[in-house]
Amino acid sequence: MFGAASIAVLVVMGMALARALLGPTVFDRILAVNSFGTLTVALIAVLGFLTGRPDFLDLALVYALINFIGTIAVAKYVVFAHLGGPLEGEEWEDV
Amino acid sequence: MALVLDLVSWICILVGSAAALIGGLGLLRLPDVFARMHGAGMIDTLGLGAVLVGLMVQAGLTLITVKLFLIVLFVLYTSPVVTHALARACLNAGIEPRARHKPTNGGGPSKR
């Protein structure tokens, strides 16, 4: 059962990678990479149970945190062209 | 009792895998960024959530369950934030949603 779940997660990771390669806009790629990170969390958890040693859940937790921060940072970098505030002369709100 | 717990966890893992597959198909085949966000949201909420709930049932009352619950809680908080930030960034970058009726107020690209 864990094997079937890990195969399904791997197939969906392939779909997310295909969308990240095909994506017309940069936001498609960001969305696909975010989904890929979430699926990596699921894959780490399921593989830990599959091998009988679920000790990698700390890695999964940290990966979820880094995935969130990384996605927000990349989205902000793409919109503002740097990680600080908005550019001069443009009144944008938050990302 | 162990059989019932195994059955419940298998059903949860199967439902999560099916939801992740459907979300992946949506991510691959839907026509728009704003539509593809639905697929990503399905992967984040029902896919990961149901798979990890099944693993929780499998693990029992241990520290592993606490860690799995923390992962589910964190992803359930951060996934809408990421989706909302990406949708705002798309609107600010000038990408129009495929809508049959244009929004009249407050829906378009803001502050351009």
Portion of residues in beta strands of chain B equals: under 5%
* Morphology call of chain B: elongated
Q: Indicate how many domains the architecture of chain B comprises.
A: 1
Helix content of chain B: over 70%
Order of helices and strands of chain A: HHH
Derived structural class of chain A: mainly alpha
Q: What class do helices, strands and sheet pairing of chain B give?
A: mainly alpha
Number of strands of chain A: 0
Mean pLDDT over all positions of chain A: 85
- Proportion of residues in extended strands of chain A: under 5%
Major sheet characteristics of chain A: none
List SSEs of chain B in N-to-C order: HHH
| Shape annotation of chain A | flat
How many helical elements of chain A?
Answer: 3
Q: What is the count of distinct domains of chain A?
A: 1
| Quaternary assembly | heterodimer
Describe the structure.
The complex is a heterodimer of chains A (about 100) and B (about 110). Chain A has about 100 residues and is mainly α. Chain A is about 75% helix and about 0% strand. Chain A has one domain. Chain A has helices at about 1-20, 25-50, 55-80. The radius of gyration of chain A is 17 Å and the shape is flat. In chain A, about 40% of the residues are buried. Chain B has one domain (about 1-90). Chain B has 3 helices and no strands. In chain B, α1 runs antiparallel to α2 and α2 (about 35-60) runs antiparallel to α3. Chains A and B meet through α1, α2 and α3 of A and α1, α2 and α3 of B.
